[in-house]
Every structure is written in C-alpha cells, then in structure tokens.
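Need Circularly permuted type 2 ATP-grasp protein's 3D structure for a figure. Predict it.
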Amino acid sequence: MSGAFFDEMYAAGGQCRPHYREFARWLADTPLELLAQRRREADLLFHRAGITFTLYGDEQGTERLIPFDIIPRSIKASEWQVIERGCIQRVQALNMFLADIYHEQRILKAGIIPAEQVLANEGYQVAMRGLGLHRGLYAHIAGVDLVRDGDGSYYVLEDNLRTPSGVSYMLEDRKMMMRLFPELFAAQRIAPIDHYPNLLLDTLRSASPLDNPTVVVLTPGRFNSAYFEHAFLAREMGVELVEGADLFVRDDRVFMRTTCGPQPVDVIYRRLDDAFLDPLTFNPESMLGVPGLIAAYRLGNVVLANAVGTGVADDKSIYPYVGEMIRFYLDEAPILKNVPTWQCRKPAELSHVLANLEHLVVKETQGSGGYGMLVGPASTAAQIEAFRLRLKARPQDYIAQPTLCLSTCPTFVESGIAPRHIDLRPFVLSGSQTRLVPGGLTRVALREGSLVVNSSQGGGTKDTWVVED
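Structure prediction for Circularly permuted type 2 ATP-grasp protein:
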C-alpha cells in the first residue's frame, strides 16, 4: 500500500478532479461566512429532528449530535460502478459462506479456512446448523467499509453483517444538502438515494415466502446508540417499531400486541445482537428479546433479518479469508482487495506484530466502533507496552494491519477548509436481487491528522455524491 494520501478533490499539482469542478466553482464563489451560517442551520435542524446517537460512558451526557460536514465527498459514476460490483460480489460470497458453514461446510473440508476459527468462533450459532432459509440468505443488509489508498485504489477495511448502522445519516445528510444548497443539485447530475427505504422494505418482504408479509423493526429501546436510526427506518418504511415486550410467541407464531388485538408478524428487521433475541435460547438474563422466538424461527414461521449467526462472517479473524471465499464460491477474482492483515493467533505473524507495534493498527476481532484498538503511530510508548501485554495474553483475539493512508477530502473545520481523512460505507441489500443505492455513508475524522472516523471517537459524516463523469 502507498505511503501518500490520495486527495479526493485535487490531483497532484493542485488541479481539480473533473467530477468536482462544478462544486469547486461554487465553493470559490461562496464566502466562508455563508458556509458557517449554513453549518449552524444544519446543526439546529439536526437537533430539532433528534438526529443523535448515544455515546456510552460519556460523562457529558449520552445524547450526541454527529457532526455534519457541508462539503460533500464526490465519486465519479464510472468509479462507483466498480465499487458497486465489488460490494455485490463480496456480499454474495459472504452469504454463500454462511450457508455453507451451517450446512455442508465445504470450505472447511477443503482446508481453506481452519475449522476451529469458524466452529469455535463466538459468532457461530449451533442453533443455525441445518436450518434452511428462504433464498439461502443470511445477511439481508450489509455495510462494507472501504478506504482509499494513496494510489487511489479502494480496499475493504471490514464487513458489517450483524446490525450495520449509519444509513439514516446517509439519508439525512442528503436531505440537508438539498435543503441548504439546492443550486448544487441543479448544476450537475447527482445520483439519488432517497429510494433506499423502499428498497429496504422490498428486501425485507422478499425475505419471506409469503405474498404480503408483515414487517416490523425490533429495537432494544431508546437507550441504544442507534435508536434514532431504528425509529427513522421504521417510519420511512411505514412499518411498526417494536421492542421485545411488544411481541410474544403463541403456538410457535410471533404476534405483535396492538390496540386491535394480536397481529401476526412475518419478518423482523432486528437491531439487537443474537445474545439478546430469545432468553430461552441465548442469554437467560435478557429483557430485550422475545421468549420462544428462536423456536418459531427454526420452524420457518418468522424471518429474522439479518439471520442469527451472521456475526461469524464479519469477525475480523475471518476477514482475511474473504478473497478466498470469492474464489471458492464464485470462481472469480476479488474486485475489491482486503487490507493486508496479520492474524495474531499465528505465532509467526504475532512475532512480526509485536516487533512492529509502533507502526501498526491492532484491532480486537470482535471489536467495533473504534473501541479496543491500538493505533501505533498515534500512541505513547506506555500505551504500546500496555497493549503488548494484552496481545501476548490473548493473541487469538487480535488482528493487525498497516497504518492506512486514508484518502482526504476538503472539510469545513473551525480554521476554515482543510483536508481530513475519510472512509466510505456503502449499504448492500440482498433479496430477490442484490442492490445498492449510489453512494453510502462517508465518515470523516474531524481532528487534524486523525485516522479514526468512528462517531464514537469524534468523527463526523458527509453527504456522498455519485456524479456523472
């Protein structure tokens, strides 16, 4: 991977890239005072709409506004087509992998992935063994995190197959940009994304063999970090938002309590982890799930999206094998490459990681949200040594990667307009077809020099434009 940063807007020599030219002309004619005023308007509107996330362990209060940057990230349409094909290919292979490991286990028998890394993985659910799913789909909604290297190539940083979040911010960011800067959309052709809720509802309905299934969104409740998104998507799809207490199982069928009496539920878009879904099958202490849900699920009387047990496929210890999955199941070369990865469970690779901690990023295989990781170049000697002890104690729980040269995009910060590092999360919907809306969630590290874009670590979001070449 290259050691230089790729600038999304400007090529070497300071020339504006063609798909940014209309925006660059507008930006040159727009006073910074107007941009500042528009940003204040956006913050006010987001506050009024309740577009927040919950930051666990924050002493200043749990509800936070995700910072929104008013300078968009643009991708030319021909480039997007490659991203789209690569994401579809990857998610198709991951769905085939999940179907395989819960049935024939061909990829394990072929020795391509060590069986113990799958079967002993905490995301692997024995309750799913031999269970047939409609269309053989496990991950109906997936988020693929992409980063861009210094030479402009895209790499997959990680796959999100359990309960991928952030699509509400993608949609709200677009609404905000269209409201604040309608002239930008009149001056060029930017691909629309507002049909995502319709595609999502179509995907969820197609997950059921029934003609007109009843769909609900299951949330852990308003204290969950992504509760705004749960409520937003239920509202946009025109379906009910429910908590575990709103559902019950009778005669192996799931029902929703309503003012008109019990109503059958056919598809549950669940936004809580496996362990909390059913206290009779998983965590008996869970107050968030529905007793008897898994029994109804195993009988085919309700669909869960995403399926139980998908977590094994987005575990970071499985990530290094996705390229091999694509070759094994699809007989194709991967369109999108992985970031080079060292598996600390392997003694030789662990030795390399321990010898180079100050240069690497080390992550928990089950980690998310930027927690539990070491960014070597940004850490003190004491932090590195403390992490070294954790790594030696439980090497199987970690992977390591080179410090990425995340691309930069102009961003409106307190000092004016300056480059900040970004990533991209397109959302892949798998139903009767596998589809994406053009764009995704662009996350931006607002602190100068920071490479951590997660909202939990102070990152913000940008609107993502796919612009005709």
